Amino acid sequence: MLSERLVATVVVRQGWVVQSFAFERYLPVGHPEVAVEFLAQWNVDEIVLLDISATPDDRGPDFSLVERVARRCFVPLTVGGGVRHLGDVHDLTHAGADKVSVNSAALRTPALLEEGASHYGRQCMVAAIDIRGEGASASSWTCSGRVDTGVHPAVWAQAAERSGAGEVLLTSIPRNGSKRGYDLATLRQVAAAVEVPVIINGGASEPAHFAAGLAAGASAVAAGNYFHFTEHSVLTTRAALLGASRRMRAAAPGYDPVTVDAAGRVGRVADFTFDDRN
Amino acid sequence: MTPRTVLVVDYGMGNVASVSNALRRAGSTPVVSADPQMAVHADGFVLPGVGAFGKAIQNLRRSGMAEALTHEVMVRRKPILGICLGMQLLGLTSEEAGHHQGLGWIDARVKALSPSLGFRVPHMGWNDVSAQAHGPLFDAAAGSFYFAHSFVLECDAELVAATFDYGDRHVAAIQRGQVFGTQFHPERSADAGLALIRRFVNQLEAPHAL
Fold first, then answer.
1. Which of A1, A11, A231, A268 reaches 20 to 30 Å from A65, CA-CA?
2. Are the beta carbons of A4 and A214 closer than 8 angstroms?
3. B14: pLDDT confidence band, cut at 50, 70 and 90?
4. CB under 8 Å to B65, separation ≥6 — which residues?
5. Residue A2 and residue B126: Cβ atoms within 8 Å?
6. Cα–Cα distance between A82 and A50 in angstroms, integer?
C-alpha cells in the first residue's frame, strides 16, 4: 500500500534557512546542510529545498548548496527556486536533486515543464503553485508571491499537468507561518482537477492539521516552520497520523508505542517501580 | 579490503550524485562517468534513472556505453544494478512516448501505469515491497521504499525478485544472475535503501584496478 507522505520544506533565503511568515517576514534558522541532515535522520519522507531569493534576485539555483545538502540526504530531495531553463534541471539533478520544482519559470517559459518531462520524466517535474485567496477566489502568484497571475490554481494545475508536471506543490501564502492549518477548500479543488499527486503546504502547526490535509485529498502534507522549532515533531506527527489511521510509513524507532497529545507533544510514559516485596 | 569500484553510468540524465552518495555510504568507491573505457576497469555498475526512456537509450548507444556495458555485464558477468528507469532500460521495449528498444538483457517490456480511482499517476512515494527474503538484495520479506515513476516493467515471474501493490501487483525488483534492478530508488529510501545498496556492493568480486 502506498503511504501518505510527510514532507519537510526547507526555505532558504540568501543562503540561510529561514522560517517564513506570509512570504513577508523571515526568521533565520541556520545552515541548510544542518537542517537537511537532521530532517533526513528524523526520517521525514521527503525534503523540499526552496531557494526563495533566487528569482527575486534574478539568479539561478545555487548548485553548490544543492550538492552539499544532497550529500547528507538519503530521502527524496526536491529543489526549487530560480529554475529558468532545461540546463538548470540538468545541473540540479546532477548536483543531487531527485525532483525539480518550477514556479515562475512555468509562466515565463511554458515549454520548460514539457522539455523537463521529456528529458527527465514527468516524475521529476513539480509544479509549485503559491496562492492567495481561497476556494473560488483563489489566485496563483509567482516570483515568491509578488506577481498575481489571476489564474485559479486548479486551472494552473491542470495546465501544468498537461505540460508535463508529475506533481503539484500547493502553498497558501497568507497561511504560511500562520499556524491556522491548510487551505483545505482550494486543496480539494486542485486535487479534484488533476490526476497527479498534490502536496499541500502552508499553515500546519499540529498533527490534526496534517490529518485534515490528507483527508481532503492531498497525497503528501508539508510543513517548514513547524518541523524546525517543535521538538521531535517529525516523529510525533508520524505517530499521531498512524494513530489517526492514516497510511504512513512506519519509521519511528524507539517511539513505539507512543501517545501524542493534540499539540503534538509526546505523552508521558506511565511510571513504574521495581517492587522487591514479593 | 580494498573498496569496490562502482561505475555510476552517466548518460546525461540520471540522479548520479544521489546514487554516488549512497554508494560511498555503503563502502564502495563510486566513479561517475560517461566514458565507455571506464567500464572495463569497474567491478560493477549502477545504471541510475531519472529520465525518459527514449532519450536515455539514445544517449547510451551514441556514447558507446550500451555496447561496453553489454560486454562487461553479459560476457564478463559483472554485477549491475538498474534503478527505476535504469531497470526498465534492461528490458526489450518501452512504450514511453513512442516505441523504443531497450538493452534487451532481460525478457521484459515497459508499460504505462494507468490512473484509476484512488491511484494517482505518477506512482510517487513510499510503498511496501514484498520480497523473497534472504535473496541477494533483500534481507527482509517486507520493507518500505521510495518510488517515483509512471511506467512499470512486465516480465516472467521467474525474473521477479520483489513486488509492490498499487491497484495491481507490479514488479518492484528483478534479478537474473548478477543483473539486478529495482523500480524504487534505494538511494532515496533511507536505511532500508542503504542496506540494499550495501548488499549489492557485497555482490561485487575482488576489485579491478581503476
1. A231
2. yes
3. confident
4. B9, B11, B34, B36, B39, B59
5. yes
6. 9
Within chain A, where are the H helices? Answer: 32-41, 63-70, 86-95, 104-108, 111-120, 153-163, 184-193, 207-215, 225-229, 233-243
The gap from C-alpha B153 to its chain's centroid, in whole angstroms, comes to 12
Q: Which chain B positions have a beta carbon within 8 Å of A76's beta carbon?
A: 146, 148, 185, 188
Q: Going by C-beta distance under 8 Å and a sequence separation of 6 or more, which residues neighbour residue B52? A: A117, A118, A119, A120, A121, B13, B85, B96, B97
Spatial contact of A152 and A138, defined as CB atoms under 8 Å apart: yes
Q: Does domain B5-203 have CATH number 3.40.50.880?
A: yes
SS3 A25: strand
pLDDT of residue B209: 46
Q: Read off the pLDDT of residues B145-197 as tens digits, 9 standing for 90 and up.
A: 999 999 999 999 999 999 999 999 999 999 999 999 999 999 999 999 999 99
Tell me if residue B199 falls in helix, strand or coil: helix
Residue B177 cell numbers, joined: 544472475
User: Of B200, B171, B131, B120, which is closest to residue A198 (Cα–Cα)?
Assistant: B120
Q: Does B142 touch chain A (CB under 8 A)?
A: no
From first to last of its 278 residues, chain A has per-residue pLDDT tens of 899 999 999 999 999 999 999 999 999 999 999 999 999 988 899 999 999 999 889 999 999 999 999 999 999 999 999 999 999 999 999 999 999 999 988 777 879 999 999 888 899 999 999 999 999 999 999 988 999 999 999 999 999 999 999 999 999 999 999 999 999 999 999 999 999 999 999 999 999 999 999 999 999 999 998 998 777 888 889 988 988 889 998 765 545 556 667 776 767 666 666 777 76
> B206 is written with which cell numbers?
575482488
The Cα-based distances of A42 to A38, A239, B195 in angstroms read 6, 13, 17
ipTM: 0.88
Closest CA to A187 of A220, A162, A164: A220
Of the partner residues B85, B124, B165, the one whose CB lies closest to the CB of residue A1 = B165
With both helix axes pointing from N to C terminus, report the angle between A207-215 and A184-193 in degrees, rounded to the nearest 10: 30
- The shortest C-alpha distance from A2 to chain B (Å) reads 4
* Burial class of A89 by CB neighbour count within 10 A (0 to 12, 13 to 18, 19+): buried
Class of domain A5-243: alpha beta
Of A32, A92, A128, which is closest to residue B16 (Cα–Cα)?
A92
The size of chain B, in residues, is: 210
Using the CB atoms, write b or e for B113-145: b if 16+ within 10 Å. bebeeeebbbbbbbbbbbbeeeebbbeeeebbb
Q: What is the grid cell recorded at B119?
A: 491511484
- Report the C-alpha gap between A200 and A184 in whole angstroms: 9
